[in-house]
From TrEMBL:
Gene behind this protein: ftsE
Protein location: Cell membrane
Cellular component GO terms held in the UniProt record: plasma membrane
Statement: the UniProt record of this protein carries the keyword Transmembrane: no
InterPro entries, sorted: AAA+_ATPase (IPR003593), ABC_transporter-like_ATP-bd (IPR003439), ABC_transporter-like_CS (IPR017871), ABC_transpr_LolD-like (IPR015854), Cell_div_FtsE (IPR005286), P-loop_NTPase (IPR027417)
GO molecular function list: ATP binding; ATP hydrolysis activity; transmembrane transporter activity
Protein's UniProt name: Cell division ATP-binding protein FtsE
Amino acid sequence: MIEMKDVTKKYPNGVLAVNGISVNIKQGEFVYVVGPSGAGKSTFIKMMYREEKPSSGSITINGIDLTKLKEKKVPYLRRNIGVVFQDFKLLPRLSVFENIAYALEVIEENPRNIKKRVLEVLDLVRLKHKARFLPDELSGGEQQRVSIARSIVNSPGLMIADEPTGNLDPETSWEIMNIFEEINNRGTTIIMATHNREIVNKIKKRVIAIESGKIARDEVRGEYGYEI
């Protein structure tokens, strides 16, 4: 599903964030991206949804070469990629239902289909009873569950999560991971950058460790491997 070949990213200030990375990720995989702060993890995943462009090398997702993709085509690429952030990025004046529905409204989905699909994903993240609540009426964990629901409402084949449990307490983090596992079991590829050692070591998945912009480890059922 994802192929990177000799990818390098150097920022204008001279920082070499990613240095010659090559990796393949298959459809349906669940991959943790780990490593020290500043190692290049965020740049690595941002290039997958064209938030950043590599300085050299190629990135292909589902046969689409992102390095050659025209800017006007980027929104269409992102329709097939769900992104979950550490800070939720919900629209504060919209209800839970409206936040999720917005992702379908912008692609002009049929209103009847929007309602049906939003209720389906709210059921998946166990928040149907709070559909009319505003984000600031929810706990941090509930806001993250809304963010997850929004990211999968258009049934993307790929979900990218950047420190999704970073602002959550341990119990809530496990609830979020249970939802991720359920989404992955339904066939969605998940790539998750994380510093959560306990989760990585307990829920065994593929681990890609990045250090100084390079892949230091790539293990099928790996461990976190760093002191926190």
